[in-house]
Amino acid sequence: PVSFSARASTRRQTAASRSTMSVTAGFKVAVLGAAGGIGQPLSMLMKMNPLVSELALYDIANTPGVAADLGHLNTPSKVTGYVGDDELEAALTGCALVIIPAGVPRKPGMTRDDLFAINAGIVKTLCEGVAKYCPDAIVNIISNPVNSTVPIAAEVFKAAGTFDPAKVMGVTTLDVVRSDAFVAELKGLDMKDVDVPVIGGHAGITILPLLSQTTPSVEFSDEEVEALTVRIQNAGTEVVEAKAGAGSATLSMAYAAARMGESCLRGLNGEADIYECSFVASSVTDLPYFSTKCKLGPNGVEEVMGMGEITEYEAGWLEKLKPELTGSIEKGIKFAAGE
Ligand code: NAD
Ligand code: LMR
């Protein structure tokens, strides 16, 4: 089986050390929205992950076919398909990790916030299921707008008395993957060596790549910093426009979510020094949720890292993003309260 290196941020591993990664536990993982554009390739990548013992595929339609298809991969995990509300309990029971890409994607001309009307309710309902059937699971939320769906999930868990801020994570890994790729491409560096932390949220100007903290250390001109920052902020839209009505990023998202999922499982498995950027409950700024690098461990987020030293340019973006991100967070909280 292929293991993602889950080459999270500051950690550097050699191929040799990766190949000796020992699997001490097998985890049940559910993908909610498993028959979708992200759900299918993500489920395939999770089926290839040696840390997964059971993969539960849940959707409102088509999961039996996807499960039958993936069930023929000769990797050790068992795959099961579940359809509709009545089968949510069976899909979720016993899960250590629940990954949620359920919901509608953007079409050209839409913002992620335009998806709120449909996706907020989907995430709320699915998280009510998580609270009931696997309250201890780590939840990775992909459904947009992430800046609002993460607060919705947290409010659902608070209402159910199951909220653990260490276990609710908005998936922003695609922003990191894109940043790493764009910087490596521009500077002619080896893709696997480059790491750019991305902070803030996951929509337009709330996405803030900290190019000054790129490793290995890279010199950028002011023009390069501006062009890269704006491209990373608009990268989702770049894909939406190229797909011209057929949806948004699915394959790169599946890749990024599989990396995030694997990092969570490696943390659960007791591996040291696992870091990923994620949109989580945070006291790094005055906003209640914020994405920075997080240290992952046996209980989920072990430590929300700070943002480190940022440049004046980055500080300017940080001030600009705060009102929009605050608004999106508040919108999610109000929705969950039924307001
Ligand atoms: P898609 O339409 O191809 O798939 C969505 C799937 O969700 C479908 O199979 C649908 O049946 C399912 N679904 C709908 N309601 C459901 C429910 N109540 N329970 C279970 N499943 C349900 O869409 P996609 O391209 O896979 O995108 C999914 C979501 O991910 C969108 O909201 C998109 O904006 C978001 N997304 C987020 C990121 C990120 O970086 N966080 C990146 C790309 C896409
Ligand atoms: C992305 O960044 O690709 C996703 O959030 C999907 C989108 O709507 O852009």
Write structural notes for this entry:
- The structure is a single chain.
- The protein starts with 14 loop residues before the first helix and ends with a helix.
- The chain has helices at residues 15-19, 39-47, 63-70, 88-92, 116-133, 146-160, 173-187, 222-233, 235-243, 251-268, 312-336; strands at residues 27-32, 52-59, 78-83, 97-100, 138-141, 168-171, 198-200, 207-209, 274-281, 289-297, 300-304.
- It contains eleven helices and eleven strands.
- The strands form two sheets. It has a nine-stranded mixed sheet with strand order 3-2-1-4-5-6-9-10-11, with helices on both faces.
- It is an alpha/beta fold and 339 residues long.
- The radius of gyration is 19 Å and the shape is globular.
- β2 (52-59), α3 (63-70) and β3 (78-83) form a beta-alpha-beta unit.
- The structure holds nicotinamide-adenine-dinucleotide (NAD) and (2S)-2-hydroxybutanedioic acid.
- Nicotinamide-adenine-dinucleotide (NAD) is lined by residues 32-33, 35-39, 59-61, 101-106, 115, 119, 122, 125-126, 142-144, 146, 171, 174, 202, 247-250, 253.
- Nicotinamide-adenine-dinucleotide is lined by residues 32-33, 35-39, 59-61, 101-106, 115, 119, 122, 125-126, 142-144, 146, 171, 174, 202, 247-250, 253.
- It is an enzyme of class 1 (oxidoreductase).
- This is Malate dehydrogenase.
